[in-house]
Design brief:
The protein is an all-alpha fold. Helix 2 runs antiparallel to helix 3, helix 4 packs antiparallel against helix 6 and helix 6 packs antiparallel against helix 7. The longest helix has 26 residues.
Amino acid sequence: MEGIMSACYHVCPNYSNFQFDTSFMYIIGGLGMLKLYQKRHPDVNPNAYAAYMFFAGVIFMAVIGVVYGTKAFWGVFTVVYILATLFLNMELYYMGRWSFDLKVFKRAYVMLRTDYLQCTDCKPMYTSRFVLLTIGNLVNLALALGGAIYQPQDFASFLLGIVISNLLIYFAFYIVMKIISGERIRFLTCLLILQSAAVWAAALYFFLEANTSWQKMPAESRSQNRPCVLLGFYDTHDIWHFLSAVSLFCSYIVLLVLDDDLDYVRRDQIAVF
């Protein structure tokens, strides 16, 4: 489906239909985060209906941002983004023991008042997890405030940047917590991670070497055209698509083999984070 919608965008690239290409990228990134979360929380992992309802909400917000990117929208988006980040971090910090219902705001206020504001000599219950999530919170806060201040015209790309950033943050969090928990990463997995990173770097290089731009007038975009670089037929953007497809495949293989060292470990003896 991503290939079909991307083809629809590439027939006539413009600001309105770019969201066809990015919508399924949101789902790909979201499924990657869900897969990582499911590895350690199989009992509290959201079901398919809740997950795809959330993705539908993200895509709906992307459409609103593309069509009605007003100051009012950016204000609402920033508030929703910050609140969603805080609640997801609570879910990760307390390992799925939080219930997200109508009383979640009250519980958050009580926890903040009793555990932090009225505590004179206290430290986080899970120090390493707290430090890593704080770094993630700061990155997301910077993205939220940056979006609210600068209000980029290409909202779809901005939202895609948020999804990719959080996927990378969560992947780094998972790797670090895995090492802290005394688990090891197999050589093949390390090799696949390096291979995936190398192919992604090459793909991004060709992506940034754009020889067209749908954000400019046709004549201005045409002035960026350059000779094809592969077999006299494919340009840099085509190579980006080839390499990004390979890197996506490698990335999901990494997710599948990341915990191969736990194949013979009892489920109740696997660390939860």
